[in-house]
Design a protein that fits this description.
about 45% helix
Length: about 325
């Protein structure tokens, strides 16, 4: 299968989908572009003004992104111009051969999977895939897999083990699809089956949250020896909007829920849920696709080298202990 690679992101302009908090930076960048587009004239030189505005834009961007709220990171994780799984495959891997179907019902395009070469080594890649246009999002169900998508992933996990292929997963989904048809075909069982199979795979597994990591739909690809998150991604048992609807019956409290859920990469690293944070390009992954993917590649390369040095028995033992250690319990005596 030919993988389409986006060479660059669109320049800030009318087609750029900006978030409220990044608009001051984009306005400065538009002014810079306007000055650069003016015809050259010996009488007027805008180079000094352009340099001044560039420094101002860079400083403003650093200030904004140094103090993002959890809700702002939720917005970044959902940005439609962030790199998706196939972008990582295109830039990091070669000889990608996509494999289809669960051999039981259908092929779910919300999950893409296949064999490729990463750093010269054959690996199995499995990841959620969203669409960039309305038509593609309909085809990929907005990155929300149905049971057949998870069963496809499970089939290929088992295939990877049979051929001794390390597994790389890329997580980016609002959650598993909750429709009636998905429930009738065993959505919960499909997710549970993935958890069971991944826990026992005798090959290295590295999972990376590249955008949204929503609920069991994300966890179904997340039982791994190393779990990474991009700097501005999220990973949570429920979306902030869903949490707000349940707790306060009010979706406008989503920002409050995002704060309380501890869904950011920094929060989850502190809680021991993930192993490493992958830095994004300045201004977020959507403003520096190649730089962000390159950063991810450096981490994946190092972690895979470490894991390949472990015998299968030790690999499984460490994975078991890793997930058994998650969570904390405080015991308290009941007062008189």
């Amino acid at each position: 299968m030919a993988v389409t690679q986006r060479k660059s992101n669109p320049p800030p302009g009318k087609d750029w989908q900006s978030l409220d908090f990044e608009r001051p930076v984009l306005e400065l960048e538009r002014k810079i572009e306007e000055l650069r587009s003016l015809p050259a004239s010996g009488a007027v030189d805008f180079s000094d003004e352009i340099r001044r505005l560039e420094k101002k834009a860079q400083k403003l961007q650093q200030e904004i992104f140094a103090d993002l709220s959890p809700w702002q990171k939720v917005q970044l994780s959902r940005h439609p111009q962030r790199p998706y799984t196939l972008d990582y495959v295109a830039e990091l891997c070669s000889d990608f051969l996509e494999l289809h179907g669960d051999r039981a019902f259908a092929d779910d395009e919300a999950i893409v999977a296949g064999v490729c070469r990463f750093e010269g080594r054959r690996v199995m890649v499995v990841g959620h895939q969203k669409g960039r246009s309305t038509k593609e999002n309909m085809r990929r169900n907005f990155g929300m897999p149905r049971p057949e998508g998870y069963r496809k992933a499970r089939r290929l996990f088992q295939l990877a083990e049979r051929f001794r292929l390390p597994v790389l997963t890329f997580i980016d989904t609002p959650g598993a699809y909750p429709g009636i048809g998905a429930e009738e075909r065993g959505q919960a069982e499909a997710i549970a089956g993935n958890l069971e199979v991944m826990a026992g795979l005798a090959v290295p597994i590295i999972a990376t949250v590249i955008g949204e990591g929503g609920s069991g739909g994300a966890l179904a690809l997340g039982v791994a020896d190393r779990v990474n998150m991009l700097e501005h991604s999220i990973y949570s048992v429920i979306s902030p909007e869903g949490c707000a609807s349940i707790l306060w019956k009010d979706q406008t409290k989503a920002a409050t829920a995002a704060e309380q859920l501890k869904i950011t990469a920094r929060d989850l690293l502190g809680l021991g849920v993930i192993d490493e944070i992958i830095p994004e390009a300045p201004g977020g992954a959507h403003r520096g696709l190649s730089e962000t993917i390159k950063n991810a590649g450096v981490v994946l390369r190092r972690q895979l080298t470490e894991l390949l040095g472990l015998p299968p028995k030790e690999l499984l033992g460490r994975r078991y202990q890793k997930f058994r250690a998650l969570g904390r319990f405080d015991e308290a005596t009941r007062g008189e």
